[in-house]
Amino acid sequence: MRILKSGTGDHRAGFWGRHLRAFLLAVCLAAAPVLAQEAPRKPVPEDFIAGPELQGVSLSPNGRFVLSTRIKERQHILTVTDLEAGIAKAETFPLGVAAIDWAFWVDDNRILLRTEMNLPYVQLDAKAYKAVLNGRSTYVPTLMTFQVDTQELKQLTPGGYVRFALTNQGQITDFLPDDPDHILLMANLDKGNDLFRLNIHDGSIRRVAQGLDETFAFATDRNGKPVFRFNTNSRGSIIEIQAREDMPDGKVAWRKVRTARLNREGSNLTAPEFEILYPGPTASSYYVAARPEGAGTTGIYLYDIHSDQFLERVSGEKPFDVQNALFDTEQRTLLGMYHHEDRLVVEMSSPEMQAAVDAVKTKLAATVDVLPIDRSKSGDRWLLFASGPSDYGSYHVYDAATGDLQLFGHSSARLAGIEAPAVEVVSFAARDGLPLKGYLSRPASAKPGDKLPLIMMPHGGPEARDAFGFDKNVQLLVALGYQVFQPNFRGSSGFGKGFADRGRRQWGKAMQTDVDDAYAHLVAAGLAEEGRACIFGHSYGGYAALAAATLTPDLYQCVIAGAGPSDLIRMLEWERREEGRESEAYLYWVDHIGHPSNDREALAAVSPARLADRVTRPVLLIHGEDDGIVPVEQSEYMEKALKKAGKPVQFLRLEDSAHSSRTETDSRAEFDAIIKFLKRHLPVE
Fold first, then answer.
1. Which long-range contacts (CB under 8 A, 24 or more apart) does 233-239 make?
2. Are 217 and 234 in contact (CB under 8 A)?
3. For a Cys staple, 647 with which of 56, 301, 383, 615, CB 3.0–4.6 Å?
4. Is the Cβ–Cβ distance between 394 and 369 less than 8 Å?
């Protein structure tokens, strides 16, 4: 049984191409090795640069094998682990220029995988990286099958020239549980991004639904019939959801049912207003994560395709946004759902499954959250993912019959050995009485009365949220002796529509004073010391840092702003040029921030670049040259204004990075600049 954790989502995010370099594909049939436990050590920047070494982990339908991709010395290794065997057996297969993009179980003995160019290598070559970003790459991703019993690796090139231009094109849309010989996946055969039925034995294909150049995903009903098509604009900020209509003449039409805004920063903690998840119990129903008109929070609903009506809220009424749901792709049933409160809350649909998840949580450290990934058809064996401030990510195999729990592996063995911060949830009230919460991370060795230098770290979005989890910036700063506070200010997601709406047009106002009030609370509670704090944020958090430098210039000792908007008028004008005057994406930002003409005076009053003469503290600006979400000009405006006003400023330009993606060279430069800046302006005693 495969557990599906999300629907279409933003599959466009995260594809940066792969580079040409040889590697070996190793297939290992063995139990996972047990590593000796060493004393925790303080992390260093290098720990966070390489990325995960273990990924793509899944359980075979019979529960005997675990499939994973391991990355060692920049080489991708496909690994099949036999949970019932103790003798290691390995074979290597030279694939030349490829890296593993994804791999899935088709049945108990067969794996379907797709290869593409290798990102870790392209990150070492700035020229090649920029070529990939600009679409100047000719590598064609390749489908392959692997037989576990014979260890045969076979190239499965569909008939004709099929182009998998985007990450999602080539992702499997439907495993077709009633048709074991075929799957549905997207590709581009001649023009348009279409949906194809692929024979997993001989590679033959048949088009089953036509898409457009802007189509990036399809969704099927419980019978495998494509019933939704998803189109997006050129910047990937808006999805148009279209429902299928079968015409009397046998042709197919696609009717727009609604649009949805994508979270362009890639956060999975943004509550969706409408997201297709999985087929429902009838041919015309679908499970969706949605916030219908009049609803206060996002929930899981049954939705009727033909009538465009919400039939039932299956998640129940909650004061929090329900983030997502879990589905059995074999039986096509709802298994459970999950959301964040102070911690991750997983609610399974049966007492037996809930008992299994709860048993694993009990066996693991109290500082991790647990999410199911896979379960065998019999239900006896589970694969679960654990993560938290003390765990970058680890995979565990649970035997429900015996209660045994085994560690399969860590996402990063290097990060598994680092010292974890102590994290607590801190409640406080804003100056207008609004109840707020945030996460305070401190060195594990800190004593209750220690008043360590504080880093205030507001999140990006701003309609996103911080959660109890692993954050590389927090980890590194805590290791250096700082304490870090991450406030979920008004306007954050996850707490319902009313809370998110409180942030509308509050840039530099109530959203900003919420951050200030968090600092004041920490001081009043004896957790921090006045005059020993800096503010550090990225994207909206970068704006909040710059706003602090200009609106409350003496509050923080220093300011670090990564990719922060500095001139809201110019930012909105840029959005209008990029998206279009009447586009939903642009109108969302007008509603959220203000109108660049009608509200010009109010926007200027909270635009840091127009208030640079107020700055009294040193400022560090960080921005990627290829940022398509907040253009690098926003940091350039701020730098120019600060220099003109004679204020202290440093500007680190990341020449080969985008809004959140980083090359290894740029990551090192960013960490180095932050550490040096803080040691100079907020030293740890």
1. 233/579, 233/583, 233/585, 235/264, 235/578, 235/579, 235/585, 235/628, 236/10, 236/12, 236/13, 236/262, 236/264, 237/261, 237/262, 237/264, 237/579, 237/585, 238/262, 238/579, 238/583, 238/584, 238/585, 239/8
2. no
3. 615
4. no
User: Six-digit token pair at 346?
Assistant: 């997983």
> Tokens standing for 540?
């909206």
User: Tell me: the pLDDT tens digits for 573-589?
Assistant: 999 998 889 888 899 89
CATH pick for 436-567+607-681 out of 3.30.70.1400, 3.30.300.30, 3.30.450.90, 3.40.50.1820: 3.40.50.1820
Q: CA-CA distances (angstroms) from residue 263 to 27, 243, 403? A: 37, 22, 39
Burial class (CB in 10 A: 0-12, 13-18, 19+), 184: buried
| CA 446/CA 422 separation, integer angstroms | 9
For residue 439, give both structure tokens. Answer: 């996460």
49: tokens are 């640069």
In DSSP terms, which residues pair with 260 in a beta bridge? Answer: 239
Which residue matches tokens 């273990």? 54
| CB burial of residue 571 (10 Å; 0-12, 13-18, 19+) | buried
Residues 336, 326 contacting (CB under 8 angstroms): yes
Q: Where are the domains of the chain?
A: 436-567+607-681
β-partners of residue 67 are 58, 80
Please state the rounded mean pLDDT for residues 83-89: 65
Interval 375-392: pLDDT, tens? 999 889 999 999 999 899
Q: Are 683 and 675 in contact (CB under 8 A)?
A: no
Q: Taken in order 114, 115, 120, 124, is the CA torsion positive or negative?
A: negative
Tens of pLDDT, residue by residue over 429-465, are 999 999 999 999 999 989 888 889 999 999 998 999 9
pLDDT at position 13 over 80? no
- Please tell me the distance from the alpha carbon of residue 101 to that of residue 652, in angstroms, as a whole number: 32
Bridge-based pairing state of the strands 369-375 and 344-348: unpaired
pLDDT band at 643 (very low <50, low <70, confident <90, very high): very high
DSSP conformation class of 418 = B
DSSP secondary structure of 621-665: EEEETT-SSS-THHHHHHHHHHHHTT--EEEEEETT--SS---HH
Query: Terminal CA-to-CA distance of the chain, rounded, Å?
Result: 54
Taking phi first (over 0 means left), then psi (-120 to 50 degrees means alpha), and beta for anything else, what does residue 506 get? alpha
Whether 409 and 466 have beta carbons less than 8 Å apart is answered as no
